[in-house]
Amino acid sequence: MSAPVVDVWGPVAPGARSSYPPAPEPHDEWPLAGGTAWVYYSPLNRRQLIRPVILSDGFSSGSSNLDQLWHGLEESGDYRFISELHAAGRDVIILGYHDRTASITANADTAIECIRRAVAERAGRAKLVVGGFSMGGLVTRYALAKMEQDPEPPGHETSVYLSYDTPHNGAWFPIALQAFTHFATDKWGDAPAVGPVLRQFSGLLNSTAAKQMARWHIEKVGDTPEQAPERVAFLRALDEVGGWPRTVRTIGVANGVGTGAGNGVKAGATAVRCDGDTLHDTWLKTQAQGEQVVARLQKAGEEPVSVRTNGLPEIDGAPGGLFTMPSPAGDTGSFGLAALLMALIGNEVDQDAITTSCFIPSISAVAAGDIKDPKALYRPITPDHSALDAFACASRNEGHTTMTEELGTWIVNEIVAAG
Question: What are the residue ranges of helices labelled H in 241-365?
Fold first, then answer.
């Protein structure tokens, strides 16, 4: 199975791959306030930074891992993105962060420092290409837009901004999954063996970055799903810098289709159910429209808790990039993660689980509509819908930030055409 560039759940998830083959030694490494940039010069440029392409990491737990990023970009089995950029004479700068759950605006300051360092180190006057994967596309989008509002030189000297399955219009963390994770943490968060794992995931879903990305968020069981204050504040800050960088060509790709065809996950279906020593008849459902009980949560010996939603779209089955978590057992996705956690606290999970669901709807990845709109989620995407200057959608709904020949070639061709 192809590994994603950005592994959302991170290596701490039960069953996740714990390590990756080491990446080649960078030609240069830039310590940054809040992160690190790893520089790989094109063999055509004789170890000079001539045509820099900055690629930002996205949302996950902890700090960026160069080995994992290199593997997703270059060794996942379908397309060698860095090699193709090198063959086109582009120098690749992989931008990582000390804390990938921190505020998008805080990590944007790290991106700005990286951009300024690239401008200072560059030999010649070739413009930069700047962008990122998943949340990294939002970080660099905000960074470039903010730099355009700053009269202090140097400017960003960038000609192309790119995003790869970025949640421009919001990401989807299933409310049932959020509720179960917080519920389990409340009940077993202090347990010696499972407590640290549960707290990790509840904290990840309640982190600043997750709140800024999520179109609907709940901090604890019983909350009404809505945009978190952190998201409202981020959208306001993005609007204050103009929303988008205006002096560059903006391009982006989606790991979902643009035809409107869903991924096959049915709305209102039981995604995962368990019974056992600690949970009784506990289940999570995929999202449906209208008023719905999306989860029944019951600790053994206690009264059940029902989690309700109202007015949300049928988004689990929408076209878009899917939740992925590489592991020896296969892709555990979103609801599959809940199944692993259920088993971890001593329960037997029904075998017919729906493991994954939409994470970044296609219309979000190419900035082509409000993901709250059930019609927009499933309509074919045309150029006039998108805020981007150019975009491409995958020919099938695939794992979030999976590097494919189809999407990678399109990006490389766009970069080369820009000069």
Answer: 335-344, 362-365
